[in-house]
Write a structure and sequence with these properties.
alpha+beta; Glutaredoxin; globular; transferase; Glutathione_S-Trfase_N; glutathionylation; Glutathione S-transferase DHAR2
Length: 213
């Protein structure tokens, strides 16, 4: 039986898959594990009553497990690994936190109005650390096989590339060759192609209010 999954719809296009990286992480996990699922697209500016009824906080993603809607992508991915252990996507514990500060650094730099506040340097430092890790352990974070940490990072790196390219005309430094190879590998996976926002403009629309705040 297909799992029911509620995720963000695109800004301004409620019938189109949206740009939430945490929603995409869950969808990537479902795709990589070949778990059938039924998608509910939630317009976050006009949340349906049924959705608020089962999920009063109104957060996405949520997945229906055994009659109960469960929120939080960390929790959801953990349950999926437990209920559907094959193929295993478990990341070795020593690699589980690799790249974990990249998304926060990206958001700080994206929202920054001061070119001298150190946010760009902080992001480059995090990406450089990822590059060093991949140089030794790649092509994925835990080696030859994609694991949960890659599926968490992939949507965040996609947002980084699209949003910083659009709002700041900024690209990941060419010198970080292992990061560039990593993003190419991730973004070309069939699971990623199927679960990413259909157009980059949906990612841009999702970030615009935060950038212009």
């Amino acid at each position: 039986m297909a799992l029911e999954v509620a995720v963000k719809a695109a800004v301004g296009a409620p019938n189109v898959l949206g740009d939430c990286p945490f929603s995409q992480r869950v969808l990537l996990t479902l795709e990589e594990k070949k778990i059938p699922y039924k998608l509910h697209l939630i317009d976050l500016s006009n949340k349906p009553e049924w959705f608020l009824g089962v999920n009063p906080e109104g957060k996405v993603p949520v997945v229906l497990f055994d009659g109960k809607w469960v929120a939080d992508s960390d929790v959801i991915v953990g349950i999926l690994e437990e209920k559907y252990p094959e193929p295993s996507l478990i990341t070795p514990p020593e690699f589980a936190s690799v790249g974990s500060k990249i998304f926060g650094s990206f958001v700080s730099f994206l929202k920054s109005k001061d070119t001298n506040d150190g946010t760009e340097q902080a992001l480059v430092a995090e990406l450089s650390a990822l590059d060093e890790h991949l140089k030794t352990h790649g092509p994925y974070i835990a080696g030859e096989k994609v694991t949960a940490v890659d599926l968490s990072l992939a949507p965040k790196l996609y947002h980084l590339v699209v949003a910083l390219g659009h709002f700041k005309n900024w690209n990941i430094p060419e010198s970080l060759v292992h990061v560039h190879n990593y993003t190419k590998l991730l973004f070309s996976r069939e699971s990623f192609e199927k679960t990413k926002p259909p157009k980059e403009e949906y990612v841009i629309a999702g970030w615009a209010p935060k950038v212009n705040a």
